[in-house]
TrEMBL record, chain A:
<keyword id="KW-0274">FAD</keyword>
<dbReference type="GO" id="GO:0003995">
    <property type="term" value="F:acyl-CoA dehydrogenase activity"/>
</dbReference>
<feature type="domain" description="Acyl-CoA dehydrogenase/oxidase C-terminal">
    <location>
        <begin position="233"/>
        <end position="381"/>
    </location>
</feature>
<dbReference type="InterPro" id="IPR009075">
    <property type="entry name" value="AcylCo_DH/oxidase_C"/>
</dbReference>
<dbReference type="InterPro" id="IPR046373">
    <property type="entry name" value="Acyl-CoA_Oxase/DH_mid-dom_sf"/>
</dbReference>
<keyword id="KW-0560">Oxidoreductase</keyword>
<feature type="domain" description="Acyl-CoA dehydrogenase/oxidase N-terminal">
    <location>
        <begin position="6"/>
        <end position="117"/>
    </location>
</feature>
<dbReference type="InterPro" id="IPR006091">
    <property type="entry name" value="Acyl-CoA_Oxase/DH_mid-dom"/>
</dbReference>
<dbReference type="Pfam" id="PF02770">
    <property type="entry name" value="Acyl-CoA_dh_M"/>
</dbReference>
UniProtKB/TrEMBL annotation, chain B:
<dbReference type="InterPro" id="IPR012255">
    <property type="entry name" value="ETF_b"/>
</dbReference>
<dbReference type="InterPro" id="IPR033948">
    <property type="entry name" value="ETF_beta_N"/>
</dbReference>
<keyword id="KW-0813">Transport</keyword>
<dbReference type="InterPro" id="IPR014730">
    <property type="entry name" value="ETF_a/b_N"/>
</dbReference>
<feature type="domain" description="Electron transfer flavoprotein alpha/beta-subunit N-terminal">
    <location>
        <begin position="23"/>
        <end position="215"/>
    </location>
</feature>
<dbReference type="GO" id="GO:0046395">
    <property type="term" value="P:carboxylic acid catabolic process"/>
</dbReference>
<dbReference type="InterPro" id="IPR014729">
    <property type="entry name" value="Rossmann-like_a/b/a_fold"/>
</dbReference>
<protein>
    <recommendedName>
        <fullName>Electron transfer flavoprotein subunit beta</fullName>
    </recommendedName>
</protein>
<dbReference type="InterPro" id="IPR000049">
    <property type="entry name" value="ET-Flavoprotein_bsu_CS"/>
</dbReference>
Length: 386, 253
């Protein structure tokens, strides 16, 4: 067993770390204050990422990516997790599911996404279908050789900047002994397609400037060429390609927790009360000890789940554990860091309140903590017939 | 033209330096180490010369512990072509003194015959600011220190130097030693393809004995102490009070 990084991996980590510190941190306060990423800043981040060959580094080399392993990609995202998501969005990492593109879809979607020419977003969630993805109501009916889509998606991250959206839509229903089960198909929908509107959604307490949008389909007509994967095969492409995205939440939570921890640690060594540094009080120092232990635990759990994917080992439960533990760890760390800072921790002069707010969504998106616990427990109990 | 760039592995500039409890030096256990920032600027300048067609090959050299290999890989990932590591110490706490470094570099230069040596004006650990100058003396080459601008011409280099009074422009004959200052350029990040390629670039490992150079120290460190803590500032209520304090307390006007 070997827990060290290679020289290349060390350099990847230190390069992304300096990139985040120099190109992302300086813009964070403005994004936080205005809730917007200035266009020029977004374009500069994207241009630099492209120039450094880090854009779409999660894609294989044959389509123009860098061919990083899951583990290496997790290291990249761990460093990105330190910075504002609204800004790191432009350190482009298109959805891996685009690898399912076939024929001319590759020229229209996959390759331009990897080259940074077209940005994507991914839409599953609806007002009445969150955790229960299959309960979606957005429906495509056959009309001649085309599909006609009606329905609404919400909470769609990054759709404000997207040139096209990867959308999951019901295309039929099977009767099963238990209950009817919807058949799902995945579509590629271009911004500007008649009958398709992207409009502003809600204001979120987490990740200001990283917007979530509402997508409306009103008799939106699409040819068969827009189907990603097979008709009624939406769950197949989802399971094949979206399996690993939970690692993103886990590893970004770890990166952010380390940034938060550094604030807590240095404040404990500086702030004096009752004539001494507060870090000398066991009430504070033991909190720091617990914090770093939890961060390391989440870090190793996450890297181990990514490593399992690289080894071709089953990783569903491990990824769910990493996502669950890391996102809940981040909530505890951000809360403790505020406690250690006292009242100052709540003021927006320091970034701690922002980290605390941002942490909240990590337990919700990409499968809530409850859904992760469901996955973990089913993996263990199903084989026992329970 | 071949460009030689010496690079040093030093305590990262972001690290809050702590003095060891026994006052023998700085605590380096578990501390992040990086390439000396001035050396990064030197590497960047060499790469720019190569991109402009003024240099053909960039050789990075590091003298120190085995781990200095990481620093050389960084130089290779930025764009240097090959690297030489001279393993001159086993203990990360050992500092090889400027004269020994200059002698080793001279030996490397005798072999490599570069047309230009670009080095940092100083390393941020000991702030000696001596190696480049000593090297020029040993080689009998021209030197231009504290460069904030470098133009290579036919057989000579025009260098803008940051001196106390302002900027000084000098012309030196090549081959030359140029030590670089902060404002010369902004070093690039290593690109991902170059990071992946760095491993495949040649890195030779040598020892001081290979060059017949004695690196044993000639200086003895008696004591290392923290700089005195800065006193807290004061708030002044008015311009008059400020002027009064500057006159009578600070004694600066
Ligand atoms: C800021 C933001 C951005 C997002 N971006 C995207 C995006 O880009 N694309 C996209 O498709 N979606 C996106 N989402 C949607 C996100 O994935 C969903 O919010 C999430 O899956 C939960 O769905 P829900 O909010 O409808 O909650 P619900 O599913 O209604 O859950 C409500 C509560 O019930 C619990 N619950 C539900 N089912 C069970 C069960 N079986 N057992 C136990 N407890 C259960 C949940 O854990 C939760 O506590 C985003 C969400 C947010 C907040």
């Amino acid at each position: 067993m070997h827990f060290g990084l290679t020289e290349e991996q060390e350099m990847i980590v230190s390069t992304v770390r300096s990139f985040v510190e120099n190109e992302i941190y300086p813009h964070e306060n403005e994004v936080e204050r205005t809730g917007e990423v200035p266009l020029a800043v977004a374009e500069a981040i994207k241009a630099k990422t492209l120039e450094l060959g880090f854009y779409a580094c999660n894609f294989p080399e044959e389509v123009g990516g860098a061919g990083l392993s899951h583990l290496e990609f997790a290291l990249v995202e761990r460093e990105l997790g330190r910075g504002s998501m609204a800004l790191t969005h432009f350190f482009g990492r298109p959805q891996n599911i685009l690898m399912a593109c076939k024929g001319e879809q590759r020229e229209r979607y996959l390759l331009p996404a990897v080259r940074g020419e077209r940005m994507d977003a991914l839409a599953m969630t609806e007002p009445d279908a969150g955790s229960d993805v299959r309960g979606m109501k957005t429906f495509a009916r056959r009309d001649g050789g085309d599909w006609v889509i009606n329905g609404t998606k919400h909470f769609i991250s990054g759709a404000d900047h997207a040139d096209f959206v990867i959308v999951f839509v019901a295309t039929g229903e099977d009767q099963t002994p238990k209950a009817p089960k919807k058949r799902i198909t995945c579509f590629l929908v271009d911004r500007g397609t008649p009958g398709f509107t992207i409009r502003h959604g809600y204001n979120s307490v987490s990740h200001r400037g990283y917007k979530n949008m509402i997508l409306e389909f009103d008799d939106c007509r699409l040819p068969d060429a827009q189907v990603l994967g097979e008709v009624d095969g939406g769950f197949d492409v989802m399971n094949e390609w979206l399996y690993a995205t939970r690692i993103t939440v886990a590893t970004m939570s770890v990166g952010r927790a380390r940034r938060v921890f550094d604030h807590a640690l240095s404040y404990s060594a500086e702030r004096k009360q009752f004539g001494q540094q507060i870090g000398k009080f066991q009430g504070i120092s033991f909190q720091l000890a617990d914090m770093i232990t939890e961060i390391d635990a989440a870090d190793w759990l996450t890297l181990a789940s990514a490593w399992r994917l690289d080894q071709g080992l089953p990783a569903n439960r491990e990824i769910a554990s990493a996502k669950l533990y890391a996102s809940e760890m981040l909530a505890r760390i951000t809360d403790a860091a505020i406690q250690i800072h006292g009242g100052m921790g709540l003021m927006d002069d320091l970034p701690l309140a922002r980290f605390w707010r941002d942490a909240r969504v990590e337990r919700i998106w990409d499968g809530t903590s409850e859904i992760q616990r469901h996955i973990i427990s089913r993996e263990m109990l199903r084989p026992l017939g329970a | 033209m071949k460009v030689l760039v010496p690079v040093k592995r030093v305590i990262d500039y972001n690290v809050k330096v702590r003095v060891k409890a026994d006052n023998t030096g700085v605590d380096l256990a578990n501390v992040k180490m990086s390439m000396n920032p001035f050396d990064e600027i030197a590497v960047e300048e060499a790469i720019r010369l190569k991109e402009a067609g003024k240099a053909e090959e960039i050789v990075a050299v590091s003298i120190g512990v085995k781990q200095a290999q990481e620093t050389l890989r960084t130089a290779l990932a930025m764009g240097a072509d090959r690297a030489i590591l001279i393993e001159a110490a086993d203990d990360v706490g050992t500092d090889i003194e400027p004269l020994a470094v200059a002698k080793l570099l001279k030996a490397v230069i005798d072999e490599e015959q570069p047309g230009l040596v670009l080095c940092g004006k100083q390393a941020i650990d000991n702030d000696m600011n001596a190696t480049g100058q000593m090297l020029a003396a040993l080689l009998g080459w021209s030197q231009a220190t504290f460069a904030s601008k470098l133009e290579i011409e036919d057989g000579s280099a025009k260098v803008t130097r940051e001196v106390d009074g302002g900027l000084q422009v000098i012309k030196v004959k090549m081959p030359a030693i140029v030590s670089v200052d902060l404002r010369l350029n902004e070093p690039r990040y290593a690109s991902l393809p170059n990071i992946m390629k760095a491993k495949k670039k040649p890195l030779d490992t040598k020892t001081p004995a290979d060059y017949g150079v004695d690196v044993s120290p000639r200086l003895a460190v008696l004591k290392v102490e923290e700089p005195p803590a800065r006193k807290a500032g004061v708030k002044v209520g008015s311009v008059a009070e400020l002027v009064e304090k500057l006159k009578n307390e600070a004694g600066v006007i």
